[in-house]
Amino acid sequence: FLYGLLFTDTTLSGEIGTKKKVKRLLSFQRYFHASRLLRGIVPQASLYLLDEDYLGQARHMLSKVGMWDFDIFLFDRLTNGNSLVTLLCHLFNVHGLIHHFQLDMVTLHRFLVMVQEDYHSQNPYHNAVHAADVTQAMHCYLREPKLANFLTPSDIMLGLLAAAAHDVDHPGVNQPFLIKTKHHLASLYQNVSVLENHHWRSTIGMLRESRLLAHLPKEVTQDIEQQLGSLILATDINRQNEFLIRLKSHLDNQDLRLEDAQDRHFMLQIALKCADICNPCRLWDLSKQWSERVCEEFYRQGDLEQKFELEISPLCNQQKDTIPSIQIGFMTYIVEPLFERWAQFTGDTPLSENMLNHLRRNKAKWRSLLHKQHSSSRSNDHSGQVTGSQEQTLNEEETP
User: Which CATH number describes the domain made up of 68-374?
Assistant: First the structure.
């Protein structure tokens, strides 16, 4: 009940809704939109209602969809909030997946709208724009020669679908929050990869509901569903070391055989993990926007925890956890180790070098901003000296 109470529409304005307003479970939006779509009702925010000038600009951007400086925020504005649908339709065409799998374009569009609308637009970070950003990054990684030379159409479709749906129906809070509020999903998945399991199962539900793959043999669709699950579950950050250790072993032993489906699938898992956390490797302006968005989502969770007298989760205390300190820790312990191994796998391609260069420059900028924050806090001390409690806080911030 507590979880439902927290996520009524009035929560964002700081109010608590009544019991009557607390009726939407996590997946209600999906069933609502799916039923509308299957009755043939066109979504209100349709791509085809856009001004021709905007469509022209969006098409021009799609011609450069393989470029690392692709601005997903601009693309989302040009497509009137339909970045995920528009991007996936284009990429399915580019990779020849529609022809290869004999997909029906209307059914594909309906399925993608279901996915896009199942993301929560009120989430600052885990929304459809993030999904589109991850999908665009995945497209770039699928074109890396070391991987591209071995990929089958099935691999490509799985990679793109997993990227698009990897955070579908994300509630804007993390797994520990679901566990300590005793949410039904935490019980359902026994506190293990709770969100990732939900993203996967929701995706399977939409695939079956849309009948996008209904014309394929049953054994093929079952295999696709299982592999989608394996890919999406790999994005659980709690499994980071597991994948890093395995990747390091493969690279050190030089025993990756991409002719084998199992090894290709493992590298698709790594590619999706990279795409999911690639924000620090983007241009500063884009990276900074994503950093601010994810921290805003953290802080909202922290505010809810404080309001309901729950222990505030790590990184969610706006008074203590600053954006620069959060980002520096994230880059140091999560992003750098993964992308250095990815560069080792790809063979230091221009894309990998570009990403690592952005990562180093962005980290330096966050360090500079953190230093300015510390200098400002010192100058604001009335005595002109850093007090013991202030010094402790600064030391804590420097150790993410």
Answer: 1.10.1300.10
